[in-house]
């Protein structure tokens, strides 16, 4: 009998941690669990863990890669502008009644890469519009929610094309389990510790009230002004229903909002960017007063140019995030083609939309107030990696004082 | 390489027939496809067939037996009176906008047999209440809908406990494919022929305007009065959205409403009744003026008594259905533990609720009008088999004339 590629006991722990730490699911609380069919072994464990924790009704909403592909392969052209709004309206109703939400990712991140891009874009747009009532309750943080990952074989083979299905799956499983901090015997305690460490970082950064961060390293000399009244976030945080959850598992970053008009200098990406099925390699970008005035790449440059031409805000930054080089995902050296992992592998910045919660009292601010404080707005939000073990970062105080933040890719404090 | 237990080409045909004949799915029409995860191979084929037929969006809503069991095994007691009404409200919205509905059955019919019966009953009741807005649009026939079957391995092993998983699945697959009339090369044409044959039967029966049917056979001498203005139905029929569909695949029966107060004599069941995980064997029942005045069984008699004691209507008949002994399901000699099949294996009667559509202009009748015409009402509707190759049935005209309907289990006309 061959060894199963995904260790069942560790998968049990991941389910346990997802319910207890990712969600902190409350007794009597319903749970909507979206997942790909490939993740069924984790879906079943999460359902059991949720019921043991006193869940009301757990409702899995399973998507299937083959069914999704069937639409693009056989669907009639005139139907690509529609979406199942009835399902999303139902979800919005459930969140309105305090159901928690967990999403499992696990499908091939490049699933639609070979489908007709125009149809994918039309269906995506129709879906975004239909999903808005439900998504807004998640992004407003009305309820506790989380995203976790399952080592689907198609995803694994995308990452490790030279390995057998079993070997690739085993390797992705190891990487996900390590990144999700469930390899130890008391994963819940480890997560409590990890959340406390992230909280200490955000507290320190918020106390510093830096005016800007300056990045120096090979090909990089970049000063990122921070937005007025910016606030650093990271790890666990409290939803409006009073439950403290971890919206992403794994999570390594602490992040805040840069000032859309106060970014100057040049930055070199340290990892390729996987964007909509394409790889963009060796990005270099120069900013002047917040605007990217030049952008080059050794591979996929035309996709990069198309991306920053999306709208005016696509040339400006909406997020700055700090992740030490020694973080488990970074240490794995892997490219996951999935933001949940890749953005937690390295210090990163994002072109496009900012997070309103990354302001003091962000929930109460209007869009105009956010813009006035330097918050960027755009239809896109695309993270890319600028961290490495050669990057130093200094915090610049309003009086010009420099405070070491990162040295050689690690926290300096 | 071993032969796969379910022939892929025949499964393709089943998907095709389900979409074209079961639903007659219309271009641009959305489809809600409920199914157990075990039926994924059929789900994928139906999605592809639906998209080829011009479907809008196909949304599978997959249930999972393990997730369902997890609730009964681990769920806290106080949560068994709740249901995911958000999902059913969403479905009702979709049906209100003319989405079609297909259900696939395929799970072990005895799945919940070993779970706490009280919890199963509470959850079932909560679910029925929550599902009502969606179900009423189906039972009112607002939209085209159908139910088809997939040979799930757990179901197969319940039917063939002595066979290996693969052999049991292969045997159930053969039985489902034969019963669903998809073993030939032009299954759509075969279904059109079958529907025409059923239509000829219902037309003849409706023209006869029988006052009653008299059944004679071993242990059986039963006269079933038919309701005033009863109407026979069977096979394809037209939904209120104008689409003609086959709500059940397979379907062999023609059926109508008996008179709740004009049933007299004794009847012996010809097959065991599988009811809520229990088998009730060798039922004998005597009726006087419509009411079951004695009921015995050689096995599970206490369950039979509990059943007919549910409410006043549970002791009276709500359906009478005619199925020739030579129908493919009957010929298989199998007990499927699933009404979709077992009720199409044999002439049957049902204790409990009648169908309002089995009256002339039934859609316009009030509950009081239905009761006045002899239609029964009850919380239950339980079919049981009374047909065999030894049963004769005569139609009795209002003037007492006898017309042979069945001889030795087959149509006499
Ligand atoms: Zn980030
Ligand atoms: Zn980001
Ligand atoms: Zn029937
Ligand atoms: Zn029935």
From TrEMBL, chains A, B:
**CC cofactor:** Zn(2+); Co(2+); Mg(2+)
> Can you name one GO molecular function term for this protein?
metal ion binding
**Would the keyword Zinc turn up in this protein's UniProt record?**
no
User: Does the record bear Metal-binding in its keywords?
Assistant: yes
Task: Cite a single Pfam family from the UniProt record.
Answer: Peptidase_M29
> Which top-rank group of organisms is this from?
Bacteria
Q: What does the entry give for GO biological process?
A: proteolysis
Could you list this entry's UniProt keywords, alphabetically sorted.
Aminopeptidase, Hydrolase, Metal-binding, Metalloprotease, Protease
Q: Which residues form a coiled coil?
A: none
Q: Which family does it belong to?
A: Belongs to the peptidase M29 family.
The identity of this protein, by name, is Aminopeptidase
């Amino acid at each position: 009998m061959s060894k199963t590629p995904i260790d069942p006991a560790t998968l049990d722990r991941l389910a346990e941690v997802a319910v207890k730490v990712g969600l902190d699911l409350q007794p009597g609380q319903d749970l909507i669990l979206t997942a790909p069919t490939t993740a069924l072994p984790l879906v079943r464990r999460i359902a059991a863990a949720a019921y043991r924790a006193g869940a009301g009704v757990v409702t899995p909403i399973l998507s299937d890669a083959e069914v999704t592909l069937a639409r693009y392969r056989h669907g009639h052209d005139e139907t690509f502008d529609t979406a199942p709004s009835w399902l999303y309206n139902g979800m919005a109703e459930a969140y309105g009644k305090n159901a928690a939400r967990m999403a499992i990712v696990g499908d091939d991140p490049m699933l639609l890469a070979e489908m007709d891009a125009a149809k994918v874009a039309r269906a995506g747009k129709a879906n975004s519009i239909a999903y808005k009532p439900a998504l807004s309750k998640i992004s407003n943080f009305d309820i506790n929610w989380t995203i976790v990952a399952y080592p689907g074989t198609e995803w694994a083979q995308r990452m490790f094309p030279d390995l057998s299905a079993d070997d690739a799956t085993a390797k992705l499983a190891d990487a996900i389990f390590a990144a999700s901090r469930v390899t130890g015997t008391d994963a819940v305690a480890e997560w409590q510790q990890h959340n406390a460490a992230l909280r200490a970082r955000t507290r320190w950064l918020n106390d510093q009230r830096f005016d800007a961060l300056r990045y120096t390293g090979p090909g990089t000399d970049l000063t990122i002004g921070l937005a007025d009244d910016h606030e650093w976030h990271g790890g666990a945080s409290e939803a409006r229903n009073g439950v403290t959850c971890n919206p992403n598992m794994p999570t390594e970053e602490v992040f805040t909002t840069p000032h859309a008009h106060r970014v100057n200098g040049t930055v070199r990406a340290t990892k390729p960017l996987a964007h909509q099925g394409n790889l963009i390699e060796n990005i270099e970008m120069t900013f002047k007063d917040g605007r990217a005035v030049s952008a080059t790449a050794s591979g996929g440059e035309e996709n990069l140019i198309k991306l920053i031409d999306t709208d005016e805000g696509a040339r400006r930054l909406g997020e700055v995030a700090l992740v030490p080089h020694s973080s488990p995902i970074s240490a794995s050296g892997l490219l996951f083609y999935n933001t949940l992992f890749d953005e937690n592998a390295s210090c990163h910045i994002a072109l496009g939309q900012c997070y309103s919660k990354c302001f003091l009292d962000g929930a109460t601010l209007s869009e105009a107030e956010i813009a006035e404080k330097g918050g960027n707005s755009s239809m896109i939000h695309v993270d890319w990696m600028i961290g490495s073990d050669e990057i130093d970062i200094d915090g610049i105080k309003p009086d010009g004082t420099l405070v070491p933040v990162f040295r050689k890719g690690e926290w300096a404090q």
